[in-house]
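Lab notebook, bench 4. We co-purified these components, and the gel suggests they stay together. Before we commit to crystallization screens, I want a quick structural picture of the whole thing.
Request: model the full complex, all chains together.
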Amino acid sequence: MKTIIGLEIHVQVSTATKLFCGCSTDYQDDAPNTHCCPVCLGLPGALPRLNKKAVEYGLRVAKALDMRVLEESEFARKNYFYPDLAKAYQITQHDKPLAVEGTVEIEDDEGHEKIIRITRVHLEEDPGRLVHVTGASKYSLVDYNRSGIPLLEIVTEPDMRSPQEARRFLNKLRTVLEYLGVFDGDREGGLRVDANISLEGSERVEVKNISSYKGVEKALTFEVTRQRNLLRRGQKVARETRHFMEGRGITTSARGKEEEHDYRYFPDPDLRPLRVAERVAEIDLPELPTARKNRFMEQYGVSLNHARTLTGDPKLADFYEEVAHIDPALAATWVADTLLGELNYRDMGIAAVPPGHIAELLELLKAGTITDRAGVQVLREMLDACVEGRPCEKPTAIVKREKLGRAAGDEFTSIVQAVISANPQAVEDYRSGKEGALNFLVGQVMKETRGRADPRELRRIVSESIKMGGV
Amino acid sequence: MAGTLNFSPDDRYNAFITTCREAPFGDGALAGVAIAVKDNISTAGIRTTCASRILEGYVPPYDAHVVELLRREGAAIVGKTNMDEFGMGSTTETSAFGPTQNPVDPSRVPGGSSGGSAAAVAAGLVPMALGTDTGGSIRCPAAFCGIVGFKPTYGRVSRYGLIAYANSLEQIGPMARTVEDVSRLMSVIARYDPRDSTMLDRPYDHQPSANISGLQVGVPEEYFGEGVDERVAENVRDAIGILEDLGATTVPVSIPGMRYALAAYYVICTSEASSNLARFDGVRYGPAVDTRKTWHEAYQDLRQANFGAEVRRRIMLGTFTLSAGYTGRYYAKAQVARRNIARDFERAFCDVDIIAGPTMPTVAFRLGEKNDPLSLYLADILTAPANLAGIPAISVPCGRVDGLPVGLQLMGRQFEDERVIDTAFAYEQEVRA
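Here is the predicted assembly.
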């Protein structure tokens, strides 16, 4: 049974001001209703004035997704009553969106290249937000700080065949948006998804309100199972809208309410039609993820996996390029594997790490001044300091303070001798040809030396010491 | 010299909803001039009601662009005038604050919807006032009260702060006893405002000139057809004769699209109104919603109780004409009819500079006389076309029938507001002399 998935993605574009007024969009940490004016409060008589930057951002996305920008697009009113909707209509685009017919390239479940077609992108304003006060059942509060925040709605064709594909598509789309500088992925609720999902031959279900791209895979996986089970039991899948309960990872029926809406769309008489098609030519696109990934492989000789990881986030890619000159291969491993792993573990962003520090660390590693193991230790010391808000110490300083410099073999002679004397059985085993015994002995020495020696070199020393001891 | 104007008028015709007893004024072109503002134009600190209970207690926190301009030129805003609720009517009888009477004959309506502004000027309470015109709401009361009223080209005066009834049709415009004062007020309010996206940067800086020799005046047959009182038509023909005496040439023209003008007008204005008025829900201003009910129920009850019957009727009509399955049959067709009328005018304006006809088909109705909506809607037949076409149009008094004023309507090409003013000025100077 083929799974058919199409997505509608609402992206908050990162303009400084709202879509139709001069209010700041940077309200995250501020008190409710402090970023409002007559326009975004929908006060009688106020008129919308289109934010040029938002249009430019929309055009950037259209160009990056290889779309056709309409000669004339139009803003329409979507009429419905809801307490968070200040004007009782949302200004959006309906019949004449900004752009149509684009593509995004992803990998399918077998790792092959696959094209997801983009139906359309359009601009619209976000409504306000209802705040339900715990304990007060008689009323809710409305916060209009969000009212008028510019959103870009991106609609795909039903081209995805699994929840995993949908996740990969969203990751790719998010990366492209970040590269274009039109979207701040760190902003909470910056990306919201409605997903249409059906099993071939059955009715389509719309899952609304998925507020994280990680939630999309969860919601869709739940739906695939739910719909399969219905069909297995001989029941039908009802055509309906469902809500995703992020916390419980399930979807629940919206009981048909949503479908009854007649939004009575008509062109907003307060705004002129938008004729911006000829401005697309003037837009200079930055290097996009696919191009950058290919360049990384060619220019730095890094593996496909490393290239993909490094270019998956423009900030990470920039970071890599700042330290790659030291040794592209060494830098790729350390940034894409070690550093990223340590950052994820601490829930830190790459922005918190000074590239100069990592460059210094890479220099130490390249020169053999410290071992890989000591390198990881240095990295952890550094990041822990960052997380706790302590000053971020330079790797050389940490190496010096913690005495992590690589020691020459003879420095360990006494430790090696002690380990050999303490483990006669293992020595005997090794002599009788059990290679594994050597690993054990080297491990013991490593433990005593806190990783300051190169394991390969230690192996040689231990092995030679045993042979000498045997003479 | 800035100061305060004491304003305590004998408002026997109920022209005002709100009066400002001590109106501050400043320096400028209108220093100390008392100006009345229609109560659908936002005034910071002065309640603005649209003559509706649904805005009870609403005091705008901001000035409309035109009000900013009035204050900048030193005018004293002395009050907010009565009107049909949300501008929906041509009699000022649908106001929640009671009807306004016509100062010429208090048993008659002043016309509408800017009836309060017209009555305030006609009664001599103020020399000038602002009205708004969606389908004739400045020109109709000007004609009925015997004053001058001008609807500018769409996009010439900022609508920022005008509480919308039908955005694509309405304009704020000046009303006064003379064309000269209308022109004077126009030069203050017609200033570019980037907040109104439907506006063009075409400021009005004009001194009226009475020289109209060589002017081509079109006389459309449709403006003298069925439903137009023959004596009103006669007065207007005489007035056009005076324009000829002043050196103008008259040419018969035709606006065939007029047949669909009223239907198109009412579909468009009610559609837009149904959307504009949806925001009056008691959440942010006006009478508060009853939070014990579900929000849907609370909205419904609040709107039922606080909108008047005519407003509710137009909301229902507009909601219907925009509904899925009907919008193609009504809203889309109305837009086609609108374009056709605009084209008819453009074609006519290839041959003529000005089109002249009566403003209203009749003189002022008796209070309470028009109680079926349809016959009232029909009274807009001669004014609504200018709104559909977005062209400038003026009503200037041209004699009386049964002692009641008749208005001569003059329309011009888009953004040729100056020529319309000049023609009216020439006529006015001639009949006054």
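Chain A has three domains: 3-282, 289-402, 409-470. Worth comparing against the SEC data before the next meeting. The longest strand of chain A covers residues 113-125.
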